[in-house]
Specification:
Helix content is about 20%, strand content about 35%. It is of the alpha+beta class. Strands 5-6-7-8 form a four-stranded antiparallel β-sheet, with no helix packed on it. Strand 6 and strand 7 form a beta hairpin. The N terminus is likely disordered.
Length: about 120
């Protein structure tokens, strides 16, 4: 997704120009591709994906790992004020902050990762 609320998609197997879809077009299930033809997005809109939030990580030897007990604290590689990574099926798509909604955790998106940043993260 681009920062302006649109989504970048390739327009075919041959590559081609990227098509821009507004969120309301995606919700309707139809959007025009770069060739002016409608694309039926209904085929994929109900496909379940796993959305997860990466708070941080750490590396430790197994010797320390087996010593962990209830109440142990692990220091992570992320500062407390840094945004968390929002992943869809393991791929970074946004950054956000943890919020509480009706006694449940949630995430407020603060930045949606553009296609170029996604490619840079892979390399």
């Amino acid at each position: 997704m681009a920062n302006d609320g649109t989504t970048d998609n390739a327009t075919g197997a041959g590559g081609g120009a990227a098509a821009q879809y507004a969120p309301e077009e995606l919700g309707a299930g139809r959007a025009a591709n770069g060739n002016g033809r409608d694309v039926n997005l209904e085929l994929v809109l109900d496909v379940p994906v796993t959305v997860s939030l990466r708070v941080g990580s750490t590396t430790m030897p197994i010797r320390e790992l087996v010593k962990l007990v209830e109440g142990s604290v692990l220091a992570l590689d992320r500062q407390a004020d840094e945004p968390m990574d929002v992943l869809v099926n393991g791929k970074l798509i946004a950054h956000g902050e943890i919020v509480v909604v009706d006694d449940r955790f949630g995430v407020r998106l603060t930045d949606v990762v553009g296609p170029l940043e996604r490619i840079e993260k892979i390399a």
